[in-house]
């Protein structure tokens, strides 16, 4: 199964439309980790699972969602309520409580992925306002591919190109 993860688009609706057009037929689910700055009733959210971020003031956004796709359990949240800029402890506890094997989040605008205790923590970076070591890529999103033998995380630029040196593969079952 395959998933697309994007975050922190901050009003840049066009890129979300573009990613939907390019990838929705290729993936099982699309996720937005918050700070879209779009209304909670935007038609895009019939395509993306979404949560609210610290810059989403529409009270109709959920802060947290746990989504099951093809047997994978995804804990989706923006991250500001779990102090993700400090460390992943609070997020890890919440994801474990939700019995998730993925935690998708954003907030820092810095891409990153780590697997610990059977949970893959993924921040796809900001698609529109990237920060940190990979800001020069001009904005990123992530593709997650899960097979029986491995989990592959690929980071892509806004035009959908995979950045091969950032690909991470976690093999086998833990
Ligand atoms: Mn943000």
What does this structure look like?
With 174 residues, the chain is mostly beta strands. The chain has one domain: Metallo-dependent phosphatases (Purple Acid Phosphatase, chain A, domain 2). Helices cover 11% and strands 32% of the residues. It contains 2 helices and 11 strands. It has helices spanning 13-23, 89-97, and strands spanning 2-6, 29-32, 48-50, 64-69, 72-77, 102-104, 112-116, 119-123, 140-146, 150-157, 168-171. The strands form 2 sheets. Strands 3-2-1-9-10-11 form a 6-stranded mixed sheet, covered by helices on one side. The protein has a 5-stranded mixed sheet with strand order 4-5-6-8-7, covered by helices on one side. The longest helix is centred in the N-terminal third of the chain and has 11 residues, at 13-23. 40% of the residues are buried. The mean pLDDT is 97. Residues 8, 10, 35, 53, 55, 107, 109 line the site of manganese (II) ion (MN). Manganese (II) ion binds at residues 8, 10, 35, 53, 55, 107, 109.
């Amino acid at each position: 199964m395959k998933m697309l993860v994007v975050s922190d688009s901050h009003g840049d609706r066009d890129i979300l439309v573009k990613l939907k057009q390019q990838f929705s037929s290729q993936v099982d689910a699309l996720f937005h980790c918050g700070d879209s700055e779009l209304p909670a009733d935007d038609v895009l959210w019939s395509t993306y699972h979404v949560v609210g971020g610290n810059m989403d003031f529409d009270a109709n956004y959920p802060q947290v969602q746990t989504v099951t796709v093809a047997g994978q359990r995804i804990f989706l949240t923006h991250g500001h309520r779990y102090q993700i800029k400090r460390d992943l402890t609070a997020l890890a506890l919440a994801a474990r409580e939700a019995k998730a094997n993925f935690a998708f989040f954003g907030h820092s605008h810095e891409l990153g992925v780590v697997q610990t205790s059977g949970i893959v923590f993924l921040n796809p970076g900001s698609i529109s306002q990237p920060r940190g070591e990979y800001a020069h890529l001009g904005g990123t999103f992530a593709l997650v591919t899960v097979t029986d033998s491995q989990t592959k995380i690929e980071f892509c630029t806004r035009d959908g190109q995979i950045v091969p040196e950032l690909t991470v593969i976690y093999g086998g079952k833990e």
